Amino acid sequence: MLKTLELKVADYMSPKPLVVKDDFNFIDAIEIMADEEIGNLVVEKRHKPIGILTERQILEHLSKYEKILSIGLDEIKLCPFAVIGLDTRVIDAAHLMIKKKTRLLVFDNKKLVGIITATDMVRAFRRTGANPDLTKVLSTKLYAVNYDDTILAASRLMHKKRIGSVIVLKNKKPCGIFTERDLLVNVLSNDVETHNFVGGYCTMPLVTAGLGIKGGDASKVMSKNKIKRLVLTKAKKIHAIVTARDIVEAFTMSFSNEG
């Protein structure tokens, strides 16, 4: 197994991120993100990155305007980013991501060569065999919508609470989860009307794990099911949720100098 300090960004980043110009159409950008199943699209101006279009910006736009407007990306408030190098240690990149609450672009000299996400970092940290406790990073504040609530209502709740997902209830019982990715892939890319029932476009069935699961084990469940959020149960009832970013934070908190 590798030591944490041996993990370099170059070995775990997602290379050659997709880049579009700042006057690129917002609707077309969403289509690219949905087709490629990515949550980050780099936006450049005069051949230099100026920001990142993320699922969160798309959610905010929909919540405000109730539909996706045909406008250029230069009219969208993009997500800022921090710059790191190929030789940056993954642990240092993780600390930067958590501290700045930002996305990370990887440059080789002045050339954009990659992006490293929370999912990439978790994959790296798993190589160390570490399995940190999640108690201090998970969130016990969960929000839910009913199956027959509208997609727009669910999106607005997520925007208001600044969260990336809501639990979907059917007959008062959890049946699925609606995420920013579901909004992108299941709804917007298919021109689905946002007054439709959110339950028809959520991720089902709801994947859960027991409260007390460790970070490494939780990441394996998430990887197997291709999800970025894992709902945790206590006494067979939903109790908390943990995200890929939370797991990165747990790894950084548990890290000690391995020499």
3D structure, described in words:
By secondary structure, the protein is α/β, with parallel strands linked by helices. The protein contains nine helices and 13 strands. The protein has helices spanning 9-12, 26-36, 55-65, 90-100, 118-126, 151-161, 180-187, 215-225, 244-254; strands at residues 14-15, 19-21, 40-45, 48-54, 81-85, 103-108, 111-116, 144-146, 165-170, 173-179, 208-210, 229-234, 237-243. The longest helix has 11 residues, at 26-36. The mean pLDDT is 95.
Give me the Rg, rounded: 19 Å
Under the CATH scheme, the architecture of the largest domain is Roll
| Anisotropy-based shape | flat
Strand content: 25-35%
- CATH topology name of the largest domain: CBS-domain
Taking pLDDT < 50 over at least 5 consecutive residues as the criterion, the unreliable ranges are none
Total strands: 13
CATH homology superfamily name of the largest domain: CBS-domain
Task: List the SSEs and their pairings.
Blueprint: H1 9-12, E1 14-15, E2 19-21, H2 26-36, E3 40-45, E4 48-54, H3 55-65, E5 81-85, H4 90-100, E6 103-108, E7 111-116, H5 118-126, E8 144-146, H6 151-161, E9 165-170, E10 173-179, H7 180-187, E11 208-210, H8 215-225, E12 229-234, E13 237-243, H9 244-254
Short description:
This protein is α/β, with parallel strands linked by helices and 259 residues long. It has helices at residues 9-12, 26-36, 55-65, 90-100, 118-126, 151-161, 180-187, 215-225, 244-254, and strands spanning 14-15, 19-21, 40-45, 48-54, 81-85, 103-108, 111-116, 144-146, 165-170, 173-179, 208-210, 229-234, 237-243.
